[in-house]
Structures are given as structure tokens and as C-alpha cells.
Amino acid sequence: MRFFSARGAQYHCRMTLDRFDRQILNLLQEDAVQTAERLAEQVALSPSAVQRRVRRLRESGVIVRDISVVDPKYVGRPTSFIVAVQVERERPELLAQFRAWLAAQTHIQQAFYVTGEADFILVITAPDTETYDALMARMVGENANVKRFTTNVALSLVKRGLTIPVPAEPAD
């Protein structure tokens, strides 16, 4: 169920998931294009019941979106960079501006606001180091609040995923 605050920000109420919902979530995370019929066979429900549950999981915000995972080397983005960014000041308006800038950059796959020495950790994909250098030059040039950043170049991929393990029963 979706709710809106007085300022129009969207938020979701916490939804209770039963064992069927949990099974469906795990199955959809493995293959989001499975038919309701195929899912129904695996969770012992009717296809229409599965469709209703999937619709409810989407409408309530449990399922955020369905995506296809693309191998970066086939689309000309073979190099990955993991970047730690430090900012000068953590004033809310400066952080909001920087977050908006990060969200608008197509080369940035993931951006985390974190604790520790860095303030943000970025996962960036690019065709080459020149493209990465240009992005970082823009980041520093367009965000005066960036103090410094350090870069790690990924040598090989060990694991890639966004799957969230959903236990069969809720944790106490």
C-alpha cells in the first residue's frame, strides 16, 4: 500500500509476507520473466492467485522493479571502478545536491552513502579509463563539496547480483 506525506514524498507501509509471497519473491529474483503458470507450479497456487500476489507485491513496493542483467563486456563497458568519495561538509542541502548529481550519471551503477573514512562508495562502469577520468573530472568540477576520491579498478568479476535472500519464514 502506498502513502504520501504532506510534501508529496511517497512511502510504503510494511507489508506482511506469507510463505507463498516469500517463495514467489525468491523465484522472481532468479528469473523475473517466469509466467504465472510456471510460478504456480513451483509454489502450489493457481496462476490467478500468483498474479494477484505479484501485483500486490509490486503495488506495495516490495518489488521495486524488474530488470535484465546485461554483461558489460558485450555493450562496450568492460571496466569497473569502485570509488570512495569524501565530501568537505555534510550539510543536508549539499548532500542532496551531490546525491542528485550521482543519480543522474549513467556510468554510475550504484552509489552508497556510508560510514567510515569515505562518505560515498560508487560502482562505476566505463568503456575505458579515459571515459572514467572525464567523469571524475566532471564530478569534481561540478561538485565543489567533493574533497577527494580514491579509485580501485576491478581486475575480475567474482560475483554480481542484486538478489536479496528471502527466508521461508519471517525472522523474529
TrEMBL record:
Q: Which UniProt keywords apply?
A: DNA-binding, Transcription, Transcription regulation
**Pfam families in alphabetical order:** AsnC_trans_reg, HTH_24
Q: Which SMART domains match?
A: HTH_ASNC
**Which SUPFAM superfamilies does the record cross-reference, listed alphabetically?**
Dimeric alpha+beta barrel, Winged helix' DNA-binding domain
Domain of life where this protein originates: Bacteria
Which stretches make up the HTH asnC-type domain? Answer: 17-78
Among PROSITE patterns, the record links this protein to: HTH_ASNC_2 (PS50956)
Coiled-coil annotated residue ranges, if any: none
- Asked if the record carries the keyword Lyase, the reply is no
PANTHER family found in the cross-reference section:
LEUCINE-RESPONSIVE REGULATORY PROTEIN (PTHR30154), TRANSCRIPTIONAL REGULATOR AZLB (PTHR30154:SF34)
The name of this protein is: Lrp/AsnC family transcriptional regulator
Organism annotation? Luteimonas kalidii
